[in-house]
Amino acid sequence: MRTRPGDxxxxxxxxxxxxxxxxxxxxxxxxxxxxxxxxxxxxxxDDPRPLPDRFADVVGDDGTxxxxxxxxxxxxxxxxxxVPMAAHRMNRTHLPPADAxxxxxxxxxxxxxxxxxxxxxxxxxxxxxxxxxxxxVPGVPDVPGELDGEQLWQVRPAAGRCEVICFSPxxxxxxxxxxxxxxxxxxxAWADRTATxxxxxxxxxxxxxxxxxxxxxxxxxxxxxQIYAYPYVTPRTATMLRQARAHRARTGNNLLRDVLDAExxxxxxxxxxxxxxxxxxxxxxxxxxxxHLAPRRDVPDLPALTGPERDDLARLYLRVxxxxxxxxxxxxxxxxxxxxxxxxxxxxxxxxxxxxxxEDLRLHLQLFSTLRAPGKLxxxxxxESAMGAWISDTTPERIADRYREVMSDDVTSDDDITSDGGxxxxxx
Length: 428
Hints:
Elements: E1 14-20, E2 26-31, E3 58-59, E4 65-66, E5 72-76, E6 81-85, E7 124-128, E8 145-147, E9 150-157, E10 161-166, H1 180-198, E11 205-212, E12 224-230, H2 235-251, H3 255-266, E13 270-273, E14 277-280, E15 289-295, H4 307-324, E16 345-350, E17 364-369, E18 371-373, E19 376-377, H5 382-387, H6 396-406, E20 423-427
Parallel strand pairs: 1-20
Antiparallel strand pairs: 1-2, 2-7, 3-4, 5-6, 5-9, 7-10, 8-9, 10-12, 11-12, 11-16, 13-14, 14-15, 15-17, 16-17, 18-19
Helix pairs in contact: 1-4
């Protein structure tokens, strides 16, 4: 089997099959089950929807066709941060009924609906977002300009890429319940997309993440995540990079390496560990529930992980997710008192940028929740939102204690990883 460049460390047997949707967006199946993984069968590759090419001219109200407009981003001169303007996303799909779920597989034998995935089943699938915040439009040069002719207000095309990754064909499922083999396939997809998107012209950073729960702002309940390829280094990463460089200048050491080593020496906030990974609550955790997952070896991003590191990550990540779903239980006045509450969360993979800071920043996952108690959310009010001055509602030690209470030694699945190959790439 042929291994995709950038994934030389992979061991999981996954077949990668790429095609194009009706409007020209790319879709990629990542298969780990038979008969697809061996090539005995192929998922549906055609998309019969009557969608216009996404870069075709747009006919205005006056009947005149005009070139499609590229999304724009503007520089906030007060902070030095780029702010993409994605006004077209106001019309994106919002909490559709079950029979109109655009991320579900197509129904066997039914007329093709406006779903995004042509196949009647899939393992893991990735496709370009139909309502992207970042999009490189052919023929639109990625050059700076000025707003209203004012040199102070810089503008640029928001020329990146946004993708959706579906973790399961089950609309009622969750990433925590996919099993280790499927989680391993998800990791392969993350690594594949990080390597591929990072090689695109103008991309500076790749961000894999998952939003889960309406409290977080999720508009589609189907288990899925997103992958952003930014044309700039994001503010959070730029801040960490600045801190890491200052730390290296003072000590000669990698800041994130020193953070992990200090947490291991303390042990107070370690919630779980394995051969290749450590889960801990950071000493200055901000959120009511927050845990970080870091590799023991220094690596800049997901493609740099070896096969055994990816295997180990699949198991420990599932344990962390499943513990999160036991973190809170329903209160006594609830008719289902004592039963677990599915944790709303954001899971964010922090990776080194494509070009700068690869020796200073270190791969790690940050998983956090806005839920501070059953039925109560952490709102970002005046201090946090206006001043950026965080005030925590708990302590990292309490978070760690609770995580250890609910952390299981085993993943609640009899599924396991079969590592005997690489990623075979098939393109249509």
